[in-house]
């Protein structure tokens, strides 16, 4: 549940940042440039955060096992590193 709350809070934050920046840009003469900068900033920061967040949800390194357990798994499974047949 915590990951969903964090995802929603950060998404709402960057969405509000983009909307407020878009509305504030009406005060200035260079509206187009300010809108572009604000929205690109919001999108890039959100994407950088989201990629990092998603990578932490499913890490590439798996759980660590003791050497005794790994050797037991290798000898138990027929298609493991140690087997009776020669490699092609």
Question: Any overview of this molecule?
Answer:
With 88 residues, the chain is mainly alpha-helical. It has one domain (1-74). Helix content is 68%, strand content 0%. The protein contains three helices and no strands. It has helices at 2-24, 31-57, 67-76. α1 packs antiparallel against α2 (31-57). It is rod-shaped, with a radius of gyration of 25 Å. The two termini are 48 Å apart. The mean pLDDT is 84. Belongs to the V-ATPase e1/e2 subunit family. It comes from Drosophila mauritiana. It is found in: Endomembrane system.
What does the secondary structure layout of this molecule look like, with pairings?
Blueprint: H1 2-24, H2 31-57, H3 67-76
Attribute tags:
88 residues; mainly alpha; 3 helices; rod-shaped
Using the alpha-carbon principal axes, give the shape: rod-shaped
Q: How far apart are the termini?
A: 48 Å
Instruction: Classify the beta-strand content into a percent band.
Output: under 5%
Largest sheet entry:
none
The proportion of residues forming helix, as a percent range, comes to 55-70%
How many individual domains? 1
Low-confidence stretches: none
Contiguous helical run count: 3
H-E order: HHH
